[in-house]
Each structure stands twice: as structure tokens, then as C-alpha cells.
Amino acid sequence: MIRLGVVASAVVVAGLSATGCGHGWSGSGAAEHVPTFAGEVAPILFEHCAPCHHPGGAGPFSLISYSEAKKRARQIAKVTSRRYMPPWLPESGRGRFLGENRLTDLQIATLGEWARSGALEGDPQHQPRAPAFAAGWQLGPPDLVIAAPEPYVLPAEGSDVFWNLVFPAPVTRTRYVRAMEILPGNKRVVHHANVLLDRSGLGRARDAATPGPGFPGMDLEIASSQFEPDSHFLFWKPSTPAVVEPAGLAWRLEPATDLIVNLHLQPSGKVEPIQPSIGLYFTDTPPARTPMLLQLEHDGALDIPPGDAAFEVTDSLELPVDVQVLGVYPHAHYLGKTFEGVARLPDGTSRWLIRVPNWDLNWQGVFQLAEPLLLPKGTVVSMRWVYDNTSANVRNPSTPPIRVRGGNRASDEMAHFWVQVLPSRPEDRLLLQDALMRARLRKYPGDFVALANLGSSLQTQGHLDEAIPVLRQAVAARPEDPGARNNLATALKAAGRPDEAIAEFERALRSRPDYADAEYNLATTLLVRGRTREAIAHLEHLVRAHPEDAVALSDLGAAYATSGRSRDAEVALERSVRLEPGNARAHFNLGLLAAARGQAAAAAAHFEEALRLDPANEETAAALAEVRAAMARPRR
């Protein structure tokens, strides 16, 4: 078994507001009927405003009762007439999305007329029932709750803070997650949050090296032990309902995985503790399909001079395979003005993915398409951002405006567009990964992330002659990165160059002595070279640090058996099958040990189990036939 590494940028499950048009005041009857709260206004507010504006909600005040709404009637009319509220970024007619929370012209007119005519209550008996909002978990008690052991304390003053808290997932077997909720712990200061899956331990290491809980950073690079680009929008913001993943699209949570909560925090003027919790809802059904997130971006082109009201950044990607688009997520900071995401099909026609005429970072979010959009191979997906770095931009954080470049600080800018797609075939994800990384290298020659991911993808596809030079370039770009060296070493091993591989594994471990994947790969390569004693030392070190690693225990048992340490071998192999009963190789090796001791029945039982788990294994079938024949021979 080989353990590879993939570098992925961060984003990750979003909920959107409820749909519906509500009721409106009929302008044709204006002379005879004045809209009232009970008759026309309450249905609009309850559906479109109350999800935020309720007691305990993200809004600064409640709009559940007549008295609360009447006090703010003029304010409601003003912000809705300007379409500042309710917040909904996509332009009508440029893509269709779940949970569209956009008022109609008639609804806006109704609210305005209600305010102008004195904000009358009407007959309370005709008022609809006020909505109820759960104070805790929206989907009911989670199957697993992971809480931050201690709060992060946000300073009272300063600019926006991007902070990461690490949540080790206490699972001992692979689980499939159908839904996730976040309780932020302090809605007043948590603007939004992303959740990333970290199987590498790098986030935990950064946490340990940073005083207090967590570590800073907006966009993170997370290494994965296998090729699996982030595939789900694990995204939260206030007022968004929890979303259950579509049937067949649950995501996998494995043992030794950390969930990193990437928080965007806004100081409130006083010291604020933040202590989030994550609720996970499981299903026993593994995912039948695996979506993928495609990132268009061109932060390298961001160099916006002061006074420029229409600075433009674009990027595009030609799809190498057919895909269905499931959702989109545009992202920029405070200078963003307009955004366009378009798909140009091979026949020359175009389809809107999304258009945002008036970008506002405060209301960014994931937008799930109302229906999947099929894009055939050869479609070019493109993005276009326009930025306004003038004093006329009320969101510009700098007065007077200053030059702004791309970066991770809130005062920097970004030009991102994430598109969640579902490829027609699982293997197409590798082709999409290749296309993404080659496109990135055209923008940024020598880019480490692109080289590391492209090399890993080529290696996974078995294109070792292409993968090895690309991985060497990645190592040259970041000589001290252990993941890149581990990947290069695994490619060298697969190409039949074990001595070169051993040297690279050892260099990876010198950069990061606790890198379990590199140590495991080094140990198995040493076994291939017959250096069993050295391999055993590394495997023993590995299982001391990770006693739940069933695969390492299985290999350690096999190494012990090769060295004649049969009792130690049996102990390690039995521990392995207790942790992972489906390990066919461990059962096979236990069968060999039992057969060597003359315990034919025990040997046959292990061989039978190994063959049940791996029916095509001829070596196991032959061993089982041999032990059965021995059992059938009459004793003398």
C-alpha cells in the first residue's frame, strides 16, 4: 500500500434561505385598501426577514411581532426599496438557485405603502402564525458533536480576523456524513466559517506551534493522504438553514482526520470568546457519486491602483470531460463590484452560471443550482471580476484609497470562483485535476501547489514517466516540504527505483520526523530491499505513535514473521484484525503462522476468511487447498 499526498486549497456545506414569494399589496386597490401588518406585511417579513431577525438570530433586532416591525417600518421600506435587504446577491435571470430570497417589485411596493400609510396592524386574527426557530441544532440531536475544548478570544478592536480551530474527529472507523451543522458559539462576531478535512496532521502541528487555541490564516493548503480534491461546500453563515447532502453524495470521514474550522471574525468593540461546536449526522450508505470543486482564480493579476473604478480580472478553464454543475461560490473582498460566471458550450452558445451586479462580502455564500446543469466536454467555464478602488465604493476599507494586491488579509483582494461539478465517471476527476493544475501552471509557472497536485494526479493514473519530473520540480520549488518528497519517493518506488525512493523518504522524515505516511512508506520500501531489521524499527515506532493503525500493524506482523519472531507476529496481526476485520492479508498471514505450528483448523479458518474478503487471490486459495488436504489425510 502506498500513501500519497495531495495539496488542496481551502473552501468547503452551505445552506440557503427559504424560497417563496409571500403575499403582496395589490396596487390596483390602493384607493380602497391600505396594506396592514396582519394582512400583507407579516407574510413577507416572516418568510424573507425572520430567518435572521428573530430572538437569538443573526439580525440585530427581531421582526416577529407587530410592535417590533412598526418601530422600524420606515427603515424596512428604505432598505428593501434599495434591495439591500433581504440580502441576495445573484441577479434575477442569470442562473436559478435553491432558496432564492429576493423580493418582488410588488412586495417592495407593499412594504413602502405600509410605512407611508402609518404602519397599521390590521386584524390580528388574520395574521399568520409567527415562525418558530430552533435555538440549537436545526436537524435535531446530531450523531456526533465535536466541541472546541477552549474558546478563542477575539480582541475588542482591529480589522477582520481569520482564525482556524482544529477539531480532531473521534471516529475509529470510516463514517459517511449526510449533514453537518455548526454552532458558532458567538453569532455576533462570526461572519462565516468554512470546514476543511485534514488527514495530514499539518493543521494540528500549526495549532501546537501557535500560542492559545488555533492558528491564523484565511486560505490554507491542506495535504491529503490520497487523491481526493475537496468535493463539498462545507460552509456556514448566520441564518442559513442546515442542508442534508443529496442522496448518494454523503462525504467520508476517516479515523485520524481533523476538521479545521476556518472562521471569519469581526471585532465588536469588546473582547469576545468564540467556542464553536460541530454536529455531524451519519448515514450507513457510502457515497455512490463523488462531486468535485473546480477553482477558477487569478489572484496573481490583482494589482489595483487607487482611483481605478473598473479593474478587471478574468480566468477560464476548458472542461476535458462532461460534468453537471451543482453549485457555485464566488469570492472577493471589499473592492469587488460585479461578478460574472459563464459557461460557453462547444456549439458557441453560452449559459449563465451566476451574475452578481452589486458584490457585498458580507452576504457572500454558496449558491446551489435549482437543477443540475449539464456541461459537455469542451465547454469553457469563465469568470470575470470587476473591482472598484475609489472613494465612491462605500465598502472600500481605505480612505483615501490605496494600491491593493492579491493576498490573504482582509485588506488584500481575491478573485475566486468555485464551481461544484459532478463528473460522469469517477475516473474523470483525475482528468479535471490535470486540467486545473495545467491551467494554474500557465498562469504561475513553477507554482508548487500546481506541480505537487499535477504530479500526484499523473502518478495515480500510472503515468510515472511524466509524474516523476513534475514531482522533482515540486520538490525544487519547496525543498523542505515533506509531502512533495513523499510523493516523489512513492513514484520512484513504483517505477522500480527503491534506493532513490528510500533516500527521498528519509529526507521527508528529516523535514518532519512525525510524518506517519512517509515513515510507513519508508518501512515498506526497506522490506522490499530486504532490510527487515530497519523496517521493523520504523514500523514499531509508527504503531507506538499510532496504535490504531491496522495497516501498519499488519505489515509489522509480516515483518516479524519474516524475521522468525512468530509470537510477536501473531500478536501484531491479531491486533490488526481486531481493528480492521476486513484485512485479508492479515488473515492470510495468521493462517500461515497457524499452519507452521501445525494448527490446521485455525489455519483453514483464517484462509477461508481471507478468501471471503479477497475471492480472486490465488495464493490464498492454494494455501487453503493445501491445509484442507493435510486435514483430510489420515493420521498415522
Written account of the structure:
It contains 17 helices and 23 strands. The two termini are 44 Å apart. The chain has helices at residues 37-48, 66-71, 73-81, 105-116, 202-208, 428-443, 448-460, 464-477, 482-494, 498-511, 516-528, 532-545, 550-562, 566-579, 584-596, 600-613, 618-632; strands at 6-9, 144-147, 152-154, 161-168, 175-183, 190-198, 215-216, 221-224, 235-236, 251-253, 258-265, 272-274, 277-283, 292-297, 303-304, 311-318, 323-331, 336-344, 350-356, 367-375, 380-387, 404-405, 416-423. It has four domains: 27-126, no CATH class; 137-283, Jelly Rolls (Sandwich); 292-444, Jelly Rolls (Sandwich); 477-632, Serine Threonine Protein Phosphatase 5, Tetratricopeptide repeat. It has 636 residues and is an alpha+beta fold. Strand 18 (336-344) and strand 19 (350-356) form a beta hairpin. 33% of the residues lie in helices and 21% in strands. A five-stranded antiparallel β-sheet has the order 7-4-11-6-9. Helix 3 packs antiparallel against helix 4 (105-116), helix 10 runs antiparallel to helix 11 (516-528) and helix 13 packs antiparallel against helix 14 (566-579).
